[in-house]
Amino acid sequence: MARVVVDVMLKPEILDPQGQAVQRALPRLGFEGVSDVRQGKRFELEVDGPVDDAALARIHELAESFLANTVIEDFTVKVEEEMVEAGK
Amino acid sequence: MARVVVDVMLKPEILDPQGQAVQRALPRLGFEGVSDVRQGKRFELEVDGPVDDAALARIHELAESFLANTVIEDFTVKVEEEMVEAGK
Question: Where are the domains of chain B?
Answer without folding.
Answer: 2-14+40-82
